[in-house]
Amino acid sequence: MSGLGTRKPFVCRPVSIQWRGSPASLDSSKTALSAAAYIRRTRFELSGMDAIDFVKRRDDLLAVKPFLPSDEPEWTRSTYLRWKKADEVSEATANPEDIRAWHVVGDLPEGATPGEWLDGCSTLVQRCLPRNAVADLALHVPQGDTPPHMHLLVASRKADSFGYHAIDYDLHRQLDVELRIAWLEWCTVPLPLAS
Length: 195
Description:
- The chain is α+β, with helices and mostly antiparallel strands.
- It has one domain (about 10-190): BirA Bifunctional Protein, domain 2, CATH 3.30.930.
- Helices cover about 30% and strands about 25% of the residues.
- The protein has 4 helices and 9 strands; from the N terminus they run βαβββαβαββββα.
- Strands 1-5-7-6-4 form a 5-stranded antiparallel sheet, sandwiched between helices.
- It is globular.
- The two termini are about 30 Å apart.
C-alpha cells in the first residue's frame, strides 16, 4: 500500500482518479466503487465500463461491516449505491483530484482472535467516525508474508437522505491522526475495548 516496498502498519490515502499535482497519474479506475469492490472482494458492473471484479481474491476475506449514518438513509443500505454516489458527486466537480473517499489500511494486532479483531476494529472506527459518515470495514487474512489487516473505506462527504453534499474537512484528521494513534496503541497493547 505504501508504494515504497516497505509495509507501513497504518496508511490513510485518498481515493481520487488523479494523485495530487500529478497529471500523469490520471487513472479513471481509481474510484470509490472500485475501492469498495477491492476491500469487499466482490464484483460491481457499470454500464459502459469493464466490470470491477475482485471475487478471485475472496479467500482472504474474513469479515465486512458497514458503518452508516445514525438516521440510515435508504440509499446507504446498498453497498453499490453508497459508493456509486460518492463517485458521481466527485465527477460533478470536474476536478480529477477531488477526493471521493479515504482508504485506510491497518495491520491487525498479533495474537488476537478474529472476533477480537472485528470487535476492536469496530470499536475504534465507531469512536473516530462522525455520526453522518458512510464507511465499509473489511478484514483480510492473506496467505503468505502479508500480515492480517483491515481496510476502512470512508466517503469524503457528509451524507443526508438524498446523497452526499459538503466535504467533511475534519475527516482526514480524524482518520489519519486520531484513528492512527488509537490504532497503533491497540496494536501495541491489544486490550479489550469497551464500546
